[in-house]
Amino acid sequence: MFNLMRHYAITSFISVLVAAVLLTAFYRHVEVQETTDFARKTNIALTEAVLDSVRLDLGEYLGAASNLGPREIARAPFPSTLAATIVRLMEKTSIGEVRIYNNLGVIVFSTRDQVVGTIDPGSSGFASASKGQSASDLVYRDAFSSFGRATEGDNLVHTFVPVRLGPAGAISGVLATDVDLSPAVAQTEREVFTVIGGILLILMLLYSAQLLVVMRAKKVIEAQQDTIRERTETLEAMSLQLLTGEEAQKLNLAVSLHEGLAQTLTAVKVGIEQGLERTLPETSRDKSLNTAISALQGAIEEVQEMAAELRPSSLD
What we know:
α1 (4-65) packs antiparallel against α5 (182-279). The chain contains six helices and five strands, in the order αααββαβββαα. The radius of gyration is 55 Å and the shape is rod-shaped. Helices cover 66% and strands 11% of the residues. It is an alpha+beta fold.
C-alpha cells in the first residue's frame, strides 16, 4: 500500500539537501568572486601606490639595468637606499614580498635575496605588465576546494605593474608584489559555514512545517475516508433492509396467492364439478358451464404462476 507520509518525508528531505547544496555552492561562488575581484583591485592600487613613492629612483635604476642579464645583475647591485625605502613601505601594508624585474624578466630586486638574478619570464602577469597592462592573479583555495594539490602559492595575490618614468614613458621594468590572502579566505570560509548553517536551519524549519501540514492533511483525509466508509456501510445496511423487506413482502404476497386465492379458486372449481355431477350428467351439461370450468382452471394456473414468479423456489 502506498504510504504518502513516508514518500513525502523522503522526497522532501532529499529536496532540502539538494537545495542546501545548490544554495551553498551559489553563495560560495559569489563570495569567492567578490573576494578575488576586491583583492585584485586593491592590490593593484596598493602596488601602484608603492611604485609612486619610488618611481623616479626606480625608473633611473631600471633604465640603466634594463638589458642586464643574470650575471651582469650581480655586478650592478640594487641601490641600498631604494631597497630600504621599499622595505619601509612594505611594513605599512599587507604586502608579503616585492620583486622588481627588468625588461628581460630578470629579478633585479626581491625581499627574498635567493631569487635575485633569476629569470621568471613565464609569468602571465609579467607578460601583461611588460606590455603596459597591470595584472593580478590568484589561486584561491579553501576547505571547499577539491581541485589540484595545495601549493605555497595558494591564496597569494600576485600583482604586476609596469614601471614608467611618466604616463607616456617607455616601460623600463615591472614591479611585482605578493599579498597573502589567507586571512580573507579564512574569513570568507567562516562566513560560508555560517551561511550553510543558516540555510540548513531555515530549510529544516520549512521541512518541519511542511511535514506538519502533510501530517494534518493525512489525518483530515483519513477522517474523511472513515466518514465515507461509515456512510457506505450505512447505505449498504439500509439497502439490505430494503431488499429484505421487499423480499418479505413478495413472500407474503406469493403465499397469499398460492395458499389463499389459488386454493379458494380450486375449492370453487371442485365444488361446481361435484355439484354438476350429482345433478346433471356430463352429456347434458350446457357448453357454457364447461367453458366456465375451463376458465376457472386457467385462473388457478395463472395465480400459481404469479406466486412462483414473486418468490422462486431457487431463491429460498
